[in-house]
Specification:
Helix content: 40-55%
Largest sheet: 8 strands, parallel, barrel
Order of helices and strands: EHEHEHEHEHHEHEHEHHHH
Shape: globular
Strand content: 5-15%
Strand order of the largest sheet: 1-2-3-4-5-6-7-8
Length: 291
């Protein structure tokens, strides 16, 4: 848990109209996330629009966030691509930029065999001295990491955690018990059952606007107060619906952050398109419900 934190947010990447990175927006977002209880920031992951970031942009984001965080939280760099050589370069760039850890998605689009998945992940884990969190998200990658693959990868000394967006809770519990890998829920709709089943924390999109609530949820589960945890979880349902179900989470989270005054623009890069507050189901109203 100390490698990555517990209350992690999959940060959006603030952008200016036209698509350039927004340094003021990034600084404001980092300050907001730290103030609302994040102890881990995932930079340049899927929610951060990683497929559209160039390698220099990805490295710049990590450097800027590391400088702004100044040791107050862990900075985890998303480095996974469908190209092993590119993923290795991004991992080394992230290490040089000061990242505390790496988030490595299962190679997408290419649909490699499980042997290919293992070879890919080991190549990236061997490229730096940073701890690695695997990201198992078959809905995006097109394939899943099997329990046997996860067990094999767990033998590597730097592969220490899994962000699970597969949603198979029984499999997650089985792998946790058999490997010692720290599990992080990567599906906001399932944060409570994962935490109650032994997950080390969450990597949350909704946390962009409600990290104080996810922090309270984690704390309630840790102290065994499931009644309070259920109350917090119920209060978050409208916000989870707004961010995760009304459209792409990245675009909806940016719209909500604009509503809060945290970032100035909801700009996303194509093929994503912006959503208005109205189209996103009025994030302001949902956030008020969750407060």
């Amino acid at each position: 848990m100390t490698d990555f934190g517990a209350n992690l947010v999959a940060m959006v990447t603030p952008m200016q109209p036209g698509g350039a990175l927004s340094e003021p927006g990034l600084a404001s977002l980092v300050d907001h996330l730290l103030a609302t209880g994040c102890d881990g920031l995932v930079v340049g992951g899927t929610t951060g629009e990683s497929p559209t970031l160039t390698e220099p942009e990805a490295a710049e984001l990590v450097r800027d966030v590391v400088a702004r965080v100044a040791g107050r939280a862990r900075v985890i760099a998303g480095v996974g691509t469908y190209d092993t050589a590119a993923s290795v370069r991004r991992a080394r760039d992230a290490e040089a930029a000061g990242a505390d850890g790496l988030l490595l998605v299962c190679p997408y689009y290419s649909r490699p065999t499980q042997a290919g998945v293992v070879a890919h992940c080991l190549a990236v884990a061997d490229a730096t001295e940073l701890p690695v969190m695997l990201y198992d998200v078959p809905a995006r990658a097109g394939i899943a990491m099997t329990p046997a693959t996860l067990a094999e990868l767990a033998a590597h000394p730097r592969i220490r955690a899994v962000k699970d967006a597969k949603g198979d809770l029984f499999e997650a519990m089985t792998v946790m018990a058999s490997t010692g890998l720290a599990y992080y829920c990567g599906i906001d709709e399932l944060n409570l059952p994962y935490l109650a089943s032994g997950a080390a924390g969450v990597v949350s999109v909704v946390g962009n606007v409600a990290a104080d609530r996810t922090a309270a949820l984690i704390a309630a589960v840790r102290r065994g107060d499931l009644e309070s945890a259920r109350t917090i979880n119920h209060s978050l349902i409208p916000l989870v619906e707004t961010i995760m179900r009304a459209g792409p989470g990245t675009a909806a989270a940016k719209a909500a952050l604009v509503d809060l005054g945290v970032i100035p623009h909801p700009t996303v890069r194509l093929p994503l398109v912006e959503v208005s507050s109205t189209a996103a189901g009025t994030p302001t109203r949902a956030m008020a419900t969750a407060s």
